[in-house]
Design a protein that fits this description.
The chain has two domains: 43 residues, N-terminal domain of TfIIb, CATH 2.20.25; 92 residues, GMP Synthetase, Chain A, domain 3. Helix content is 31%, strand content 26%. It has a three-stranded antiparallel sheet, with no helix packed on it. A three-stranded mixed sheet has the order 4-5-6, with helices on one face. The chain is built from three helices and six strands; from the N terminus they run E-E-E-H-E-E-H-H-E. With 137 residues, it is of the alpha+beta class.
């Protein structure tokens, strides 16, 4: 693959540190969520992954919608990323909740969501590695 764009970010001090990009557009305090015994006084990698995956999937949905000549510009994608024990370490699981415009029928919507799942870079990166559930709401 030849990269069209490469994002760069640096994290220091792990889950209790900062994440920054060289251009300064991202500068976040990181914190372990309260549910995992932390302070919750910052964002966490799972929130960042959820936001990135949701945005990427929404773009993929827009692409396949335009190709099919179906307007999904008002669709919303909510990413949920769970973290938990997996064997000796930790693992992730994702649910993508897709809200389609009321003008899109259920069959067409399901087809577009499945097509988006095939072209989305995050879906391609996670396929076979972590469970990803697609929910159309």
């Amino acid at each position: 693959m030849e990269a069209l764009y490469t994002a760069v970010a640096t994290a220091t001090h792990g889950r209790e540190g900062r994440a920054v990009t060289p251009d300064g557009k991202l500068d976040l305090q990181l914190a372990i969520p309260v549910e995992m015994g932390g302070s919750g006084q910052g964002t966490n990698p799972e929130q960042l992954f959820a936001a990135g995956y949701a945005a990427c999937f929404a773009s993929a949905l827009g692409l396949v919608g335009r190709q099919a000549k179906v307007d999904v510009s008002d669709a919303a994608v909510t990413g949920e990323v769970g973290i938990g024990k997996l064997g000796e370490g930790f693992g992730l699981a994702v649910t993508l909740r897709v809200e389609l415009p009321g003008t899109v029928d259920e069959t067409t919507g399901r087809k577009l969501v499945e097509q988006a799942h095939q072209v989305c870079p995050y879906s391609n990166a996670t396929r076979g590695n972590i469970p990803v559930e697609l929910v159309i709401e």
